[in-house]
Fold:
Amino acid sequence: MADYDLVIRKGLVFDGSGDMPRQLDIGVKGDRVVQVAPELPTDGVQQIINAGGRWVMPGLLDIHTHLDLEVEVEPALSEAIRHGSTTVLVGNCSLGTCFGKQIEGEQSPIVDCFARVENMPKSVLKKCVDRVTWDNTGDYVSHLESLPLGANIAAFVPHSMLRIEVMGLEAAISRDPTEAELQAMSELLERALQQGYLGMSTDGLPFHYLANAPNTAKRIPTQHAKFRELKGLLKVVRDHGRTWQTTPIIENKLKGLAYFFLSSGRLFRKPLKTSGLSVMEFVLAPRASNLFLAIARLINSRLLNGNIHFQALGCNFRVWSDGPVSPLFEELPSTCELIARDHDDVAGRRALLDDPAWIEGFRKDWFHGRRGWNLGHLKARLGLPELLVVRDLKLMVFDGAPVAEWDGETLQAVYERARLYRDGCTELARSDVERQALDRVPAIQDEADFMRHLFREYDKSARYYVDVSNKNDEPALRYLMHDQALPGFNDSGAHITNMAFYDANLMSLKLASTRGLPTVARMIERMTSAPAKFFGIDAGELREGARADITIVDPGALRTFNSNDHRIMAWREAYDHVQMLNRSQGVVTEVIVAGKVAWENDAAKEILGRERLGRFLRAA
Structure:
């Protein structure tokens, strides 16, 4: 009689090392892999999975998520599990919940920070905040360990929340810390690292603003920190051999470059593991990521002895906009004002849209770098634009349009039809609804007027998407496999109506499969053991003695899968709100966490969300 609880038979096994796969059996007892061999006995085994023709691999790591909130309302993390991710990292981009609610009077920092940075409705965030019962990093760990987790969780200490914890929200966005406050931040960070946190996260993107009055024109706290503060805190991270997760300071490129050099062991005594965002081929700046990769190669060279890698996305970076409410439009001062209005404040946005001063600013923003003889236009033509927000109507596609005939059409096509209709070509209207819509288009002189009309007439119901980067997925594989990058800029759990990349790891696998099994083996290593080693957590291997977190994939279904075809808008009971989600039916056939089958045949098993499968992973 075999002494296994579970045997996976005849699968093509990728162990996470990058070596070529072999057809093997895997025996699981409790939460551990106890034997891997060409053939194992199955008499008396409680559960047998026949994996012939399928790929068996370690559970995938999702290294950049904002599932901090989702785990509070759905600890199963089923949307991550369904796509084969068994370990997720939270506390990214300086935001998180490890210090508790941190509420000050009318200010709720979790809501204030997440609402605009991660485009999450305040009603959803408040629902999550209501679940918070802890007020320190140690109790947060205990809380996570008490939940019926579906996936393993590892966490960064978020710098914005660390600043708020010591200084309070108002001080954290209005002044420098005192020496005593700097010391207090260092002590809190030190304590968290001793408790097993991955390191610290910061953020430098210039369009990350707070969401609550009176601070809607101010950026999140981490962006108010000076170099001396970050250098001191990162020394604590460096001394522990932990990781700094960061986004670049793109509005001051020399300053951003200087910050990246904090990774250097030659300049700062010991290398600092650094995970930076991000590398992809931007539509408006196709060569920008090459600069990041060149910087990483220099910093990681023997000369500077650093350890920095940039995160790559495994598919095209497609972002949906709900009219003016979009993470993309935070980059323009005028549209940023619209977004600063509460999510449901239609009247407030309309008042701005009718304000002559706002209209003048919007027109200036819309055409900045796109026309005229000026430095901004020259830089844009050279592929180094001052703004990365796409404002070309030919690249913007209706998907959820207020007029059914517009769905699938570019905004440019509708704009041109509207102008011709006003010039007398009334036969262009394809239905009474479209005719009525075109009748309401005022006299417009250019595309800026047309966009303002869409915003004013339809507000959030004029829904469209833009492929910001990695158009048609083509450039993604080059970045995914680059030795100065790691796959995983997925942003799972954030921007809940604007994007969905829970399945980006599967797209990375699909792209690798076009190059053959050696590339697949290398890609699996880069999504399992390589990040686990980099972040210092016990995950990502499929070997005897390892924890039995296993993902099984059907390569035939993977070949025909495309993320763009399987994004849906669905009602999420846990959020009491709609969310954009991915569906990869048939691709992931089974997911095993801690030796137990959590997902099978495109459905969650009863055990998922009822029993504790995942755990809090402490960095070592």
